[in-house]
Design a protein that fits this description.
The protein has about 150 residues and is mainly α. It has one domain (about 15-145). The chain contains 5 helices and no strands.
């Protein structure tokens, strides 16, 4: 990395190494974000306002459509937001289209974590507090790294 924080353009193979590193960070960040959301939901204390619409939609829709998981709900909410953005800016870019893939991968990852930890809220308050604290700490760490 150069002094100004940008990728070097003239380094032999540098661009490929940077892309690989960025891809790894993206995948780890996406997996940890899904884990933080899963743990927050598992605590039974609620989720952040960012994922709350998808969580509420999931809780209602799963009564009628058993396949409508939290991850599927997240995908549909993100899909709606992407289409709304495209309608507002009146422009379609490749990165907007690629966002559909990210939304799908995030939804699958969220459902994977929920299958690992289960969806039932534990009866023990200590365990619920543990899940909530882990979800908050992971989310806070991700925000700190992002900034």
């Amino acid at each position: 990395m150069t002094d100004n924080g940008k990728q070097p353009d003239n380094a032999a193979g540098g661009n490929m190494a940077w892309r690989c590193r960025d891809g790894i960070f993206w995948a780890v960040g996406l997996a940890l974000t899904a884990l933080a959301v899963c743990l927050s939901a598992k605590s039974g204390f609620g989720v952040s306002m960012v994922v709350a619409p998808a969580y509420v939609l999931h809780l209602k829709m799963v009564e009628y459509l058993p396949w409508f998981s939290f991850g599927v709900s997240e995908f549909f909410i993100e899909l709606f937001l992407i289409f709304a953005m495209i309608a507002i800016v009146k422009e379609v870019r490749l990165k907007y289209i690629l966002t559909f893939g990210t939304a799908a991968i995030y939804g699958v990852t969220l459902d994977m974590w929920r299958s690992v930890f289960g969806t039932a809220v534990p009866d023990q308050i200590g365990l619920r507090l543990f899940y909530a604290a882990c979800g908050i700490l992971i989310c806070g760490l991700l925000v700190a790294v992002w900034i």
